[in-house]
Amino acid sequence: MHPYQEYIEKLEAKYNKSVEEVIRDFYIDQDEGPSVTARELGIPRKAVLHFIYEYNLRPIKHQNIKKKEVA
């Protein structure tokens, strides 16, 4: 069983999409940090950080930051 299974089930039921898509939406698309993402989703920051690392979203976030700096 996944260590954050209860949060996975909660988010997937609430948003009707995979937890990866939910985290990506807040963390990447809406450009929120882990703390704000956790607050918006109603889950612990530690769980958000776990999902960020599990789905390898950090490099994507940093690429977006670099693109904004150049533009």
Blueprint of the fold:
Blueprint: H1 5-15, H2 19-29, H3 34-41, H4 45-54, H5 58-70
Helix pairs in contact: 3-4
- Mean pLDDT, all residues: 91
Alpha carbon gyration radius: 12 Å
The structure class reads mainly alpha
Q: Tell me roughly what share of residues is in helical segments.
A: over 70%
Q: What string gives the helices and strands in order? A: HHHHH
Enumerate the spans where pLDDT stays under 50 for 5 or more consecutive residues: none
Question: What keyword list fits this structure?
Answer:
71 residues, elongated, single chain, 5 helices, mainly alpha
Provide a descriptive summary of the structure in words.
With 71 residues, the chain is mostly helical. The protein contains 5 helices and no strands. It has helices at residues 5-15, 19-29, 34-41, 45-54, 58-70. Helix 3 (34-41) crosses helix 4 (45-54). The chain is elongated and about 40 Å long. The termini are far apart.
Gist of the model:
By secondary structure, the chain is mostly helical. Helix content is 75%, strand content 0%.
